[in-house]
Amino acid sequence: MRRYYFNFRKGDEISRDRRGMWLPDLGAARSEAIQTWGDLMAVALLSGETPFDCEYEIADDSGETLLTIPLAERTLLN
């Protein structure tokens, strides 16, 4: 098991995960981030706010970003 940290970034601002989560591998960390993304999007839709320019950065104990998952992309509506 390895500890993964799920940092939340919005534009240039970052909120660092200080607790982390023990998971077997990066694939499990990715799955956890995607599940949390679904919960976040549900809350965002209910509040009327879409998390543009937001992403999860999955990091290891050294702080190195291993994987970045965009939460929403800007789209143009006609």
Structural topology:
Blueprint: E1 2-10, E2 13-15, E3 21-23, H1 26-47, E4 54-59, E5 65-70
Antiparallel strand pairs: 1-2, 1-3, 1-4, 4-5
Describe the protein.
- The protein has 78 residues and is α+β, with helices and mostly antiparallel strands.
- It has one domain (2-70).
- The protein has one helix and five strands, in the order E-E-E-H-E-E.
- It has one helix at residues 26-47, and strands spanning 2-10, 13-15, 21-23, 54-59, 65-70.
- Strands 1, 2, 3, 4 and 5 form a five-stranded antiparallel sheet that branches.
- A hairpin with a 5-residue loop joins strand 4 (54-59) and strand 5.
- The N and C termini lie far apart (48 Å).
Strand tally = 5
Number of domains: 1
Distance between the termini: 48 Å
Q: Give the helix proportion (percent range).
A: 25-40%
Main pleated-sheet profile: 5 strands, antiparallel
By secondary-structure content and strand pairing, the structural class works out as alpha+beta
Question: What string, H for helix and E for strand, traces the elements in order?
Answer: EEEHEE
Mean pLDDT: 85
Low-confidence runs: 74-78
- What is the C-alpha radius of gyration, as a whole number of Å? 13 Å
Shape label: globular
Name the beta content range. 25-35%
Number of alpha- plus pi-helical segments: 1
